[in-house]
Write a structure and sequence with these properties.
With 287 residues, this protein is mainly alpha-helical. The protein has one domain (3-27, 46-284). The protein contains 13 helices and no strands. Helix 3 (47-80) runs antiparallel to helix 11 (223-234). The longest helix is centred in the first third of the chain and has 34 residues, at 47-80. It comes from Paenibacillus graminis. This is ABC transporter permease.
Length: 287
């Protein structure tokens, strides 16, 4: 039912069109960056060329997943931001819930529908970005690293949908859309400041205060932290630290800005608690 509704509302159609545009643009950018290597990947004959090829591939892949994370996030948010409030405002909820169907089943059914669709889309996008990058540069090929990277890439979907459905039970459809967009933007901004703060030349006290602020932002919205952890796992950053330069300008990633495994556990608990609160709120909501 959830998939059919998204198709009826043309959410998936618009997503697929924008994805095609994004991947086409990414192909041309990757081709341009990849062609800057003298002779391409096939000419690698020494360690210096190998490192340069890896750095070029890291730049292309990081750029693809940087924008791909926005695509995944906005699909998760805008597919579910009106799941409760929007249908209640239109009278659809009142027509469905009087049937002999417990509210928790309806809520979990919607949640599973949105999450499975989002994860399937994440898999397609994840694969497409890697295939395009592989056509123009060297990319990581370790199977375990790719699996861990995908799980982290897709983990944003249930987190955002859980929070969006909770917001849909608290705010109006438009209000929840604005709330989710602003909250995701705040988390992204905190992550970006955290990555770039080391190059600002700030004093230690100011840097400590800035890190505390960005840490709070990441705790309120862990999505960007999960994406940074995904990139670190994809490139095995801990093993490569000091061997290969990851100074990729706007897409830079330093080992000090990568969240720990404890942050991953926190993000999982965050999603579970938010889902439980959203379900309990919906159980008591006066429609």
């Amino acid at each position: 039912m959830t998939w059919k509704e998204l198709l009826r509302k043309k959410v998936m159609l618009m997503t697929l069109i924008m994805t095609a545009v994004f991947l086409l643009a990414f192909w041309f950018v990757a081709a341009t960056v990849g062609s800057s290597e003298s002779g391409g990947v096939s000419s690698i004959v020494n360690g210096g060329n190998l490192i340069n090829s890896f750095s070029t591939g890291a730049f292309i892949v990081s750029m693809g997943f940087f924008f791909g994370a926005f695509v995944i996030a906005f699909l998760a948010i805008f597919s579910s931001f009106s799941s409760i409030a929007g249908e209640a405002e239109q009278g659809v909820m009142q027509a469905l819930l009087p049937r002999p169907l417990p509210r928790w089943k309806w809520y979990l059914g919607r949640w599973l529908g949105y999450v499975t669709l989002g994860i399937l889309y994440a898999l397609i996008l994840f694969t497409a970005i890697l295939l395009i990058a592989d056509a123009h540069a060297s990319i990581p090929r370790d199977g375990a690293a790719l699996v861990k990277a995908f799980l982290l890439f897709a983990s944003v979907v249930p987190l955002l949908i859980s929070l969006s459905m909770l917001g849909s039970g608290l705010f109006s459809a438009v209000g929840n859309g604005v709330f989710m967009t602003m909250l995701y933007g705040a988390g992204w901004l905190g992550g970006m400041i955290d990555k770039l703060s080391g190059s600002l030349g700030l004093k230690e006290d100011a840097l400590h205060t800035l890190h505390n602020l960005t840490g709070i932002m990441s705790l309120l919205m862990p999505a960007d932290g999960l994406q940074r952890k995904m990139t670190a796992e994809l490139f095995s950053l801990e093993e490569m630290n000091g061997m290969v330069s990851m100074d990729l300008s706007f897409f830079s990633l330093d080992i000090s800005s990568v969240p720990s495994n404890s942050f991953i556990i926190y993000a999982v608990l965050y999603a579970v608690v938010v889902s439980a609160i959203g379900l309990l709120r919906f159980q008591r909501k006066d429609l």
